[in-house]
Specification:
Structural class: alpha/beta
Strand content: 15-25%
Shape: globular
Order of helices and strands: EHEHEHHEHEHEEH
Mean pLDDT: 97
Low-confidence stretches: none
Number of helices: 7
Bound molecules: 5-O-phosphono-beta-D-ribofuranosylamine
Largest sheet: 7 strands, mixed
Number of domains: 1
Helix content: 40-55%
């Protein structure tokens, strides 16, 4: 069976990318292969992780290209060249336009570090998500993998996992627990699920 060709979009450290790479190595991504890592940030450590794993990495600069439209055009060109079937956003800190998300409808997934619909949407990124959860005093948070449409964190939910908030948690401590107990587990699982569905189409 033909494997689903996956592009992982990143902007930062890339621990979720690493979880995907490790899952593929362990044979837990049998329906897909990570064919490309695309970053909008030149210095993203995620690009080093790609290189270390022998995966093609590319940096696309919105600043150099001059506009979001030109950026997305370039990205589409690369994805077409690489015959990408599925895009995984793993800490990709740039909002894609409707024209892009429509073009890849049901072909883009994202990991968000809360149980959607809590603490999501515009402004809820990075530590802000965990700050908001602690401020609200929730006892359970978690992570969500969802399809991407033009609404930030608004697409159909694919997989979720809950994580307990503990006494004395700081945003940093909670962020780490959510990554370890939820994000790094469900992102590879959800990616395999969607990769399998695409491969079977
Ligand atoms: C993660 O918390 C992810 O849920 C969010 O951005 C962060 C990326 O971290 N979308 P990393 O680059 O994968 O380490």
């Amino acid at each position: 069976m033909k494997k689903t060709r996956i592009a992982v979009f990143v902007s930062g450290g890339g621990t979720n990318l690493q979880a995907l790479i490790d899952a593929e190595k362990r044979g837990e991504l049998p329906s897909g292969e990570i064919a490309l890592v695309l970053s909008n940030v030149q210095s993203a450590y995620a690009l080093t992780r790609a290189e270390n794993a022998g995966i093609k990495g590319v940096w696309v600069s919105k600043k150099e290209l001059g506009s979001q439209e030109a950026f997305e055009e370039k990205v589409v060109e690369i994805l077409t060249q690489e015959k990408i079937d599925l895009i995984v956003l793993a800490g990709f800190m740039s909002i894609l336009t409707k024209s892009f998300t429509d073009r890849y409808a049901d072909r883009i997934i994202n990991i968000h570090p809360s149980l959607i619909p809590s603490f999501c949407g515009k402004g809820y990124w990075g530590l802000h998500v965990h700050e908001a959860a602690l401020e609200k005093g929730v006892k359970v948070t978690g992570a969500t993998v969802h399809f991407v449409n033009e609404i930030p964190d608004g697409g159909k939910i694919i997989m979720q996992k809950a994580v307990e908030v503990e006494e004395g948690d700081t945003p940093e401590i909670l962020q780490k627990r959510v990554m370890e107990q939820a994000e790094w587990i469900i992102l590879p699982k959800a990616t395999e699920k969607i990769a399998r569905e695409i491969a079977n189409k």
